[in-house]
Amino acid sequence: MASHQSLPENLILVNREPNGIAFVTINRPKSLNSLTRPMIIDLAKAFKALSQDESVRVIILSGSGRAFCSGVDLTAAEDVFKGDVKDVETDTVAQMERCRKPIIGAINGFAVTAGFEIALACDIIVAAKGAKFVDTHARFGIFPSWGLSQKLSRIIGANKAREVSLTATPLTAELGERLGFVNHVVEEGELLKKAREIAEAIAKNNQDLVLRYKAVINDGLKLDLGHALALEKSIYLIVIFRRGVMTITVE
What we know:
This protein is of the alpha/beta class and about 250 residues long. Helix content is about 45%, strand content about 15%. The mean pLDDT is about 90.
């Protein structure tokens, strides 16, 4: 039987299933899942806890209602931005980046600014047809702090990223898929089904290798190719040493 945990006010829902799949849901649909400071803190805590939970193999992140996340709640923006930006314990994106488990983003409706940055912190993205990713930093005069200015250009190319960010023009799910940002675009009714399908495929694999593989890909992206290849080789040697003899089982 799946276990359910609701964080304060039920605005961040966490559901662990016995098959190793955990669901994190941003649950403030009447406000298009806009984020308050307590929600940001609770999201960070949720990802940290799931990263440490050995029963969890993969995480699916979604938003309830008509949007994934419409960004920071502007009525509470002062409270959000006066928070300690150096405190990684309460930083949602920092905890997502530190999370050992693969994170699948199931994106519907809008992912705006902070929502866009949270989507960028996912390892795999499934988007509903018509979903839009929007960077409004330039429109509202707020400088990015969750990586949008650096990550997007590395995924979709510098010229397209400049256009998306400097014009605040939506990046559609369909274009995002063509540019390699979105893995799959599906009908909205199939969104969680497709995310679960990917999660189940991951959960069936060797857990130790999945964790190491995610880490080496993500860590390697921060390096030039030569150092990234050296990183892969060093981890390979650690794995071989710890196992003594490497055995590959093909089912």
